[in-house]
Amino acid sequence: MRKMFYALMALMVLTSCGDKKNNNGTNPLTGEKTENGTEAESKVEFNDQPLLAISEYESPDWYVPVGYTPSSSNENLDYENFTEEQWKELTERNEKETAAYYELLKKNMERYTVLRNLEGDKKVSFVAANFDKGQESTIAMGWQGAERDEHMKYLRYRNESGVNENGWDMAILVTEEYAKTHKPLKVEGVETTYDEDGEEQVVPLPPYQVEELEKITGKKVKKSRLNSKIEEDMYQFYTVMFENEGDKAYAMQVFLSRKGLHLGKMETTDVDGGEAMWAVDMEGDYPYQNIISADDDGKNVTFWYIESAPEHIDMGYFRIVNDEVEQHTYSSNYVWVN
To answer: What is the pLDDT of residues 139-181, one digit of tens each?
Structure first.
């Protein structure tokens, strides 16, 4: 669904023919004033950005899908009402960011030497890259050799401690400098269990916090589930789904700390046939988001999450800023399994 959206967005840009003008001295994307009425140059700092890494069963290798999610995907832009001029500016900005990111990745890919996930840090070394073939932002699992090269742009790293025995595993890949300056925090995932009828058993948000959340949002909680715990019970990370309202479904990511609730943004999707259309091949539930790693650089605690659904795997971070949850997506990838 997301891939289709971005393809449609790109098509709308390519078919537009408006000249890029900015006569009123504002950026048409943000409405902010620009010097002498010209567009402000987009500047994105990557700062040793962690990468998503996927292992393959009984292999010592980890694959990083090559792709970049532009910063505009994390902005609250009114795509439906964009003018041709705004589409053109957005596309040019995204192309510049993506090109800059790829150049940085090519120059620094050998510096990524540390894998971080629930098992802790592992040492890896760079093996190979495939930039010239394959599809961007695609995770091709089960393919081998030349076949994988045809389907997936990737960086490949080798786990120095031996083969991966846990099937598909996911981690963030960081540079040695990042590992030294960002202290890892203990993260505990919550194992999924099922009852005799095959119903998923979840740990819900405590009742008094449910009442508080309903009071704040004005919506009735349908169900909630604990996804991860960080530093024992210092932080607890929940996904909350609310009762449908007409043809819309609602969900939110929530952290519970010793200060209380920290709310993410309210997310919505369409309801079709009584089911929320969060992701392809899922029965109304919100895609799983789990904290795969968390770290503290002395200024911010950053919670690195993986969102997984049948058709995509995304990676990004949560931070608690002024008691609210800030979310940023770094990597949106589509899964292609042989």
So the answer is: 998 888 899 999 999 999 999 888 887 777 899 999 999 999 9
**Predicted local distance difference test score (pLDDT) of residue 3:** 40
3-state secondary structure 249-267: EEEEEEEEECCEEEECCCE
In this structure, are residues 154 and 160 in contact, taking their beta carbons and an 8 Å threshold? no
Cα separations in angstroms, 221 against 84, 213, 276:
40, 8, 15
Distance, in Å, from the CA atom of 74 to the CA atom of 84, rounded to the nearest integer, reads 21
Q: Using an 8 Å Cβ cutoff, are 15 and 295 in contact?
A: no
Q: Using CB atoms within 10 A of its CB, is residue 16 exposed (0-12), middle (13-18) or buried (19+)?
A: middle
- Tell me if residue 189 falls in helix, strand or coil: strand
DSSP 290-315: EEEEEEE-SS-EEEEEEEEETTEEEE
Question: By C-alpha distance, which of 278, 80, 48, 54 is closest to 168?
Answer: 54
CA angle 172, 176, 179 (to 5 degrees): 60
Span between the terminal Cα atoms of the chain, in Å: 20
pTM: 0.84
What percent of the chain stands above pLDDT 70?
A: 86
Residues comprising the chain, all counted: 338
| Percent of the chain residues topping a pLDDT of 90 | 64
Residues 6+ positions from 320 with CB-CB distance below 8 Å: 255, 257, 262, 301, 326
